[in-house]
């Protein structure tokens, strides 16, 4: 290692333990108890990275990581009929027995080239593998999700990400500007099948598919790190899409066309402004605004025993109202008191200053008479918007640091 080259390496071991859940009906006679088996897995990794400074303007970085994933028992592996989906057999693995392994390499590259004194170009590439995923279902009033590790039926999610950016300083380098774009492709993204109910399901693989994904976007950033007035702003335009590739018609999502993922929010703006009046007082304003999260609108309604039931044929075919919120904080700092061995500060915070009722989800349920909007006979189910925080929220915090 010298002034132009440095490197590092290491090993890492991660253990994943998932408790999928259980259901205790208590004294109920019509509900069967459920106790899903715990899932256990390990990831053994070795990695290395090299940074190389080529001249005064060019910096090169390269790294490689090797992952060895092991899914272990106790575990019951079920085998299903390809047509009916019914269980045709199973194999039980004892505690600690190896069930399934995956080996993957994760290379990464980074380039940084300086143009003049205040401008630089950056480019990057990284391949990642994810062995623990969260599958969402947002058609319920409170969106549900469930963690799932890779196993013999669910292969790890993999992605390739590319990035390119330009950064510069203006006004004697007191203001930093950046423009960065990215493109990412991914495989084996977990999502649920049409009409699936994966809540407390023993064999989750029957209710999910692994979809192809892509995400891309561009971010514009502005940063002023110094001065009594300082802060930063950034605006991002991006898309996040998924696409199933199922031959069976019943398992296709949006007929195997691209559709918005649960994280698709094309427009996102974040900003922070700080005013440091004196060494003891700092006032901060934080504002965020973004496109509403995608959700699924019912395509039709059918009647079952005098109940109107919504039919969902498409996934994430609409969006919630835009989300925006303003937060304020006042930080009062105290210098070190000779009689104390620490220094501290008080922070008074107001979240959601103007009481925005940001929607958390939209769901459907049967209307309950005229007072609930059912002014016409045979009205369809009503759609209702759920908000979690609809008023300002105050907080007072004291932080201290020992010298």
Automatic annotation (TrEMBL):
Listed name of the protein: TonB-dependent receptor
Protein topology in the membrane: Multi-pass membrane protein
InterPro entries assigned to the protein according to its UniProt record, in alphabetical order: Beta-barrel_TonB (IPR000531), Beta-barrel_TonB_sf (IPR036942), TonB-dep_rcpt-like (IPR039426)
Chief location bin: membrane
Pfam families: TonB_dep_Rec_b-barrel
Domain annotation TonB-dependent receptor-like beta-barrel: ranges: 10-345
Origin species: Maribacter litopenaei
Keywords: Cell outer membrane, Membrane, Receptor, Signal, TonB box, Transmembrane, Transmembrane beta strand, Transport
Gene3D superfamilies (alphabetical): TonB-dependent receptor, beta-barrel domain (2.40.170.20)
């Amino acid at each position: 290692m010298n002034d132009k080259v440095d490197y590092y390496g290491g090993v890492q071991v991660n253990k994943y333990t998932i408790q999928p859940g259980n259901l205790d009906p208590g004294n109920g006679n019509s509900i069967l108890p459920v106790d899903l088996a715990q899932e256990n897995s390990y990831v053994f990794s070795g990695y290395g990275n090299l940074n190389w400074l080529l001249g005064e303007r060019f910096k090169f970085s390269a790294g490689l990581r090797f992952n060895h994933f092991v899914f272990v028992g106790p575990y019951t592996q079920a085998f299903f009929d390809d047509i009916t989906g019914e269980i045709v057999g199973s194999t039980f693995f004892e505690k600690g027995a190896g069930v399934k392994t995956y080996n993957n390499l994760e290379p990464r590259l980074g380039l940084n080239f300086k143009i003049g004194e205040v401008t630089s170009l950056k480019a990057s590439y990284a391949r990642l593998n994810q062995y623990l995923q969260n599958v969402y279902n947002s058609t319920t009033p409170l969106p549900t999700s469930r963690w799932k590790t890779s196993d013999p039926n669910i292969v790890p999610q993999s992605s390739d990400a590319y990035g390119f950016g330009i950064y510069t300083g203006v006004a004697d380098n007191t203001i930093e500007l950046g423009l960065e774009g990215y493109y990412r492709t991914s495989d084996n993204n977990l999502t649920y099948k049409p009409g699936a109910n994966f809540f407390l399901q023993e064999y989750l693989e029957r209710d999910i598919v692994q979809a192809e994904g892509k995400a891309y976007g561009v971010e514009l950033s502005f940063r002023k790190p110094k001065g009594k007035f300082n802060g930063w702003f950034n605006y991002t335009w991006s898309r996040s899409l998924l696409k199933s590739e199922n031959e069976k018609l019943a398992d296709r999502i949006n007929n195997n066309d691209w559709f918005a993922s649960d994280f698709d929010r094309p427009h996102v703006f974040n900003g922070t402004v700080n005013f440091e009046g004196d060494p003891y007082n700092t006032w901060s304003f934080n504002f965020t605004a973004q496109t509403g999260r995608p959700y699924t609108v019912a395509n039709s309604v059918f009647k079952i025993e005098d109940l109107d039931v919504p039919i969902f044929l498409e996934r994430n075919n609409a969006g919630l109202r835009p989300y925006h919120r303003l937060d304020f904080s006042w930080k009062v700092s105290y210098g070190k008191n000779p009689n104390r061995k620490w220094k501290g500060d008080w922070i008074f915070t107001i979240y959601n200053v103007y009481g925005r009722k940001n929607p958390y989800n939209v769901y459907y349920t049967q209307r309950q008479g005229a007072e609930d909007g059912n002014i016409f006979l045979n009205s369809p189910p009503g759609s209702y918007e759920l908000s979690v925080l609809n008023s300002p929220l105050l907080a007072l915090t004291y932080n201290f640091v020992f010298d």
